[in-house]
Amino acid sequence: MDAPVFITGLGVISSIGDDLSQCLGALEAGAAGIGPMRRLVSAHRDTLPVAEIPHTNEALAAMSGLSPRAPRTALLSAIAVREALAQAGFAPGGAGAGGASRGVAPGGAPAAGTGASRTAAASRGATGRGAGASRGAAKSGSPDWGGLRIGLVSANTVGGMDLTEDFYPRFLKDPRSGRLRDVVHHECGAVTEMVADLLGIRHYVSTVSTACSSSANAIFMGARLIRHGFLDVVVAGGADALSRFTLNGFNTLMILDKEPCHPMDENRKGLNLGEGAGYVVLVSEKAAAHTRPLATLSGYANANDAYHQTASSPGGTGSYLAMKGALEKAGLSPSDIGYINLHGTGTQNNDIAEGTAVKTLFDPHYPPLSSTKSFTGHTLGGSGGIEAVFSVLSLQGGYVYPNLRLQTPMKELPFVPATQFSKGAHIRHVLSNSFGFGGNCTSLIFSHT
C-alpha cells in the first residue's frame, strides 16, 4: 500500500479573492469575478468578459515580495505559495517560523463568509512586504526548513508573456527601446525559478506545462516525489496571468463567451478566461507527524486520449480513464465520492465529453457536482491548483459550490449540477477534474484524514 501524502497548507488568489477567506466568502455569496476588462489592453476589451484580478502589478508585488517588474504570473504564484506555506507552519523569507499568512492559522481553514475586503488586504500587503528578488538571486537569509527536503513543482502556460507582449511592439518600433532583460523571463520555467529563489526552496524545483491540466499534474508529480522518498515536502500547484496571446488564441478557436459563462448548460456558448494561482503543501507521513493535516491526496491519474490538438474525444474517453484511474489509486468506488469539482469550462465540446464520462462512471448514482469556473473563469495553468484548494475546503466544511447561471440542464445528461451553495454535507472524498488540450486529462481525489 502506498504511503499517505498529506495536505497541510493551502494558498489561493483569483478574481474572487486575494486569499482563502475571501475566495470562500465569494463562493458562499455566489459572487462571481467575471466582468469587463480593466487592466488587460486588448482589441476585445469591450466585447469579451474576463475574470481579472483587480490589482496592479505594483500592488501584487507588495503582496508577494517580488519586484513589480516580475512577470504577473510570478507575482500571483508567489502570493499563493506564501499563503500555503504559512498555513502549513512554514514562514519563508525570514518571516519567522510558524507564522500564519493573512489571518489563516497553521492547519486551520477559513469559515465561509469571513473574508476581509480586498482593499484591506492590499493595504496590509503594501506596508508589510519588501521589494522583490530577481531570477537567480535568492533573498538574503535562507529559511530554516527544519531539516526537511522541500521542493516546488509549479505549473503555468504563459510564463512571462505579459512582459514579452510589452517588449516587442516597443522594440520593433525602435530597437533601442524596451528592456531586453524582460524577454529572459518569457519561458515558463523562469516563473518557477523566481518564486523558488524568493522563498529559498532549493532541494528540487520543476515546472509543468500541459495546458489546462498543468497544475493538477504538478500536484500529481509532487505526490509521487514524496511517495518515492525523494522529498519530504512539496509545494505544488500553478498560476497563470491573463495575456493577449491566450485571449487571441482562444478567440481564434471561437470558444469564448461574450457574456459570463454558464458551464454545463444546454445553451452554453464558451468559456471566459481568468487569472489566478492555487497551491497546496504536500507532506510525507513523517513530516506530518507534528502538524494537523487538512486532507490526504488519496488518488490521482492522468490519461491522454490524443483525440485532437484542442478538443476532447466526444465520448470523454480520456476524462473517463482519468477519473477511473484516480478512484482505483485511492481504493474507492464511485459511490464514495461526495462532491465532484468539474473541469466544466462552458464549451460545447468539453462539457459534453466530461458529462458523458461522468455518466459512464457514476450512473445511476451521482454525487453533487458543479463547475467553479462560473466564478473564477478558466485560469488555464492555474485552474487545477485553484480547484484543488476549493476541493480541500469542500472536504473541511462539507461545502457544495453552486454552478452559477445554469438555466437549462444539458439534455444529454441525466444529472443536474448544484445551483445553490450548501455546507455541512457529509463529504469524505472529493474528485477534482482538470482536462487540457491534446487530451491531457488528470483527476485528483482529496480525502478526509
TrEMBL record:
GO molecular function: 3-oxoacyl-[acyl-carrier-protein] synthase activity
Pfam families xrefs: ketoacyl-synt, Ketoacyl-synt_C
Domain Ketosynthase family 3 (KS3) positions: 58-448
Ranges in coiled-coil conformation: none
GO biological process, one term: fatty acid biosynthetic process
UniProt xrefs under InterPro entries: Beta-ketoacyl_synthase (IPR000794), Ketoacyl_synth_C (IPR014031), Ketoacyl_synth_N (IPR014030), PKS_Beta-ketoAc_synthase_dom (IPR020841), Thiolase-like (IPR016039)
Keyword NADP: no
Biased composition (Low complexity): 102-126
Keywords: Transferase
Gene3D superfamilies: 3.40.47.10
Classification via CDD domains: KAS_I_II
Region (Disordered): 96-142
One GO CC term, this protein: cytosol
Domain of life: Bacteria
PANTHER family, sorted: BETA-KETOACYL SYNTHASE, POLYKETIDE SYNTHASE-RELATED
Family membership noted in the UniProt record: Belongs to the thiolase-like superfamily. Beta-ketoacyl-ACP synthases family.
Name listed for the protein in its UniProt record: 3-oxoacyl-[acyl-carrier-protein] synthase-1
The species this protein was found in: Dinghuibacter silviterrae
